[in-house]
Amino acid sequence: MGYLSVDSYPRPQNGRFCNILVTDRPVPIPLSAAGSPPDRWAWAPEVEVVEAMTASPAAAPGRVLVVDDEHNTTSVLSAYLRRDGFDVEVLHDGQEALASALANPPRLMVLDLSLPRMNGLQVLRALRGRHTTPVILLSDRRDEDSVVNGLRLGADDFVTKPFSAREVAARVEAILRRSAPAGAAQAGGDRTVTAGDVTVDLVTHQAWCGGRQVTLTPLEQALLVHLMRQPDRTFDRRTLLAQVWGFSHGQPSAVTVEIRRLRQKIEADPSTPRRILTMHGRGYRFQA
User: Global pTM?
Assistant: First the structure.
């Protein structure tokens, strides 16, 4: 016997599209007034099926580690990711998540901030000391400090609860697409990108800045290469979110934090940058 799960509200009878997932275990269904967060949960043996989501027959594009102590969140999100062809490992504990990620690095980790034994920021800090695995942070905290702290530690994205599982799955795919330049290079395209005295190897994620070698994360590389390929053009933060992150909406502060991290790696003096310039009131540009 299968179970049906709704990933978001409001309910379908109000004219809003509602996604239904078929799962192999009971998942709580929100029963609440339309347009408001669920205030109670019930086990639903049957609901109206608007869209049945089934696993993609395509080969799995890699392993995603989903870490959250809320079982309904991991159930719905993992169902969407499996539908998209991913192998999904689900954990509910920070220490177990770190041990798994270090022993067998996933292609991407979806990591909640509030976890038992070791919180999400502690996991991220320990992970970033050894791996560049892309990380999406989940949290019910909406203050900007939480977002900025996570991004400064190396998170690739930050999603606040409640969220649409479909949107998070789309963000996973958008982040992983940033690795596409390396695949294109291996297929016979240009392996390196050069602008001014900066050269980036798209395969090894290494950059040479005035003869100094640095290692970039996939997000840092994607942002730097995007700017380098159009030197002297100014990009505002929302344009960069759309073109580099692949998001039509998101936290503009993510761009600010990532620019700061890039400057710390490629600028001789990050406080007085000469490669990635701030055009006040307009955005950022790469000075070739």
Answer: 0.64
